[in-house]
Amino acid sequence: MQTSDIIGYIAAVLTTTAFVPQAWMTWRCKRAEGVSLSMYVIFIGGILMWLTYGILLSAWPVIIANIVTLMLASFILAMKLIYK
Amino acid sequence: MQTSDIIGYIAAVLTTTAFVPQAWMTWRCKRAEGVSLSMYVIFIGGILMWLTYGILLSAWPVIIANIVTLMLASFILAMKLIYK
C-alpha cells in the first residue's frame, strides 16, 4: 500500500468518525438548536454524490466511509427535525 | 470529462459549501453550545490528512475543496472556542 493510500484511509476514518461526538451530543442533550439544518441537508446531498462516485469507480473505501457518514449525518438531521 | 468526475466535483462542492450555513449561523447567533468541539477537532485533523493526500497525488480538486473546508471548519471551531 502506498503512503498516499494510508493517508487517504486515515483521512476517511477521521472525517467519518468526527460526526460521532456531534450525534452523541445532540442525542444526549435532546437539543439541536445550534446545529444548522441547511448544513446537514446540503451535506447529506454531497455524501449521496460521493457514494454514487464511489459506486461508479467501485472504490470500496469511498463507498464504506460514505455509508457510515450518511448514517451519522442522517441521524443528526433527524435529531434536528425532532428537537428543533 | 467522465460522468464520475462530474459527480465527484458536485460532491466536493456540496460537502464543502455545507459548512457555510453552520459558520454563518454560529457567527450570527454568537452561540456555539450545540456544536460539538470534538467533532470539529477530529474533522479538521481529517481535512489536513485529505489535504496531504491531495498534495501527494497532485489532485487539485481535492486540494482546493479541502483548503476551503479547512477554512470554514477552522472558523466554526474558533467560534466554538470564543463563544463556548
Structural descriptors:
84 residues; 83% helix; homodimer; elongated; mainly alpha
The CATH topology of chain A is given as: Monooxygenase
Would you tell me the overall average pLDDT of chain A?
A: 92
Structural class of chain A: mainly alpha
Cα Rg of chain A:
14 Å
Explained architecture:
The structure is a homodimer of 84-residue chains. The first copy, chain A, has a single domain, classed as Up-down Bundle (Monooxygenase), CATH 1.20.1280.290. Chain A has four helices and no strands. Chain A has helices spanning 3-17, 19-29, 37-56, 60-83. The longest helix of chain A is centred in the C-terminal third of the chain and has 24 residues, at 60-83. The termini of chain A are far apart. Chains A, B: It is a multi-pass membrane protein.
What order do the helices and strands come in, and which of them pair?
2 copies of one chain form a homodimer.
Chain A: H1 3-17, H2 19-29, H3 37-56, H4 60-83
Helix pairs in contact in A: 1-4, 2-4, 3-4
